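Hello support,

Our group uses your service weekly, and this is the first time we've seen a run hang past the timeout. The protein is CpaF family protein. I'm not sure whether the cause is the sequence or the server load. Input pasted verbatim:
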Amino acid sequence: MSQETFRKLRQMLMEKLDVCQELTDQEILETIDELILDSLRESGVSLKEKVQLRQELFYSVRKLDVLQELIEDETVTEIMVNGPDSIFVERKGRLTKWPKSFTDQEKLEDVIQQIVGKCNRIVNESSPIVDARLETGARVNVVIYPVALNGPILTIRRFPDKPITMEKLIELGSVTPECAEFLEKLVKARYSIVIGGGTGSGKTTFLGALSEYIPRDERIITIEDNAELKIQGIANLVRLEARAATVNGAPAVSIRDLIRSALRMRPDRIIVGEVRGGEAMDMLQALNTGHEGSLGTAHANSSRDMLARLEIMTLMAELDLPLQAVRRQIASGVDILIHLGRMRDRSRKLLEISEVCGYEDGEIKIQPLYQWQEEKGLVKMEPLMHREKLERAGVKL
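Update from on-call engineer: The timeout came from a worker crash unrelated to the input. Re-ran successfully.
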């Protein structure tokens, strides 16, 4: 069925519906059924096509239009809308163009306003960039004119309904059983770990899988920009989410605010979904004041680059600390660096586990414990130097 026919039917449907009245889903579906019956009685359209049309018309007025089908598809991990007729979908790391499209740019804009409105946010020319979250937990980024020169851009990152476990990552080849067992012992012994990697390298997924190893009797506080982590099995779990300033005048609540608040909640460990700025200083202070075993992620191109990123982000806190003091904080607070990457075949893999060995001659010393090699995969490099935490926890390598 052509887009023109669908557009006409949708216009007829909107004329039939009383937009001022709160209609149930069933009432809308009944109106759609009447419309299809009256309009396509002698059209030669098959029953299968009518059923599909019924669903698409319903989605166009009640849900997220052509995107609803993708939102409900568990195989979809990312949806990229570059315009009303330019939609790309990621499945298993591979991008394909979606054959369906919005009827026009106005409908795409309606869907965007519907999404941000439910989050009590606003997007307009004065505020053209918005991050939001769907009821399903999917993360949404919206960019509109004048920043987006060719019209509104919508990106939706969808997360699995069930968290991906370390066993699943082993099955996918993202990590070896040996490395998984090694990391399990480090987590249980309360080594503080920061996970790095580029965009789409699987940092949040790996963080969630690593969190499985936290003992079930601990009090855990998670802190995120957009709540994505789904930690299972911990009864004493507190989830905190940052908030931008709202259209009603409510002030923003930053990651820094949440870390400071979390420290007053008597956590055993703090898990920070992603460190992007001055909150790195607050996280380091937490690691250095009795909250060992905490976990976090940050964007970085390598383990060595992660150290430089942590330095820069800590200095962004504007506490006027000398660089050497910052480096000492990092060296004493962070025990292990994990680096993830996306391979040429678009698979995601653990590329390196490094140990932060200390601070010496003005530099932070690190050594690789495991490294990815093209021919051999993950190879064990050096033995763990600092084993005091393992010994205190009664954990043997």
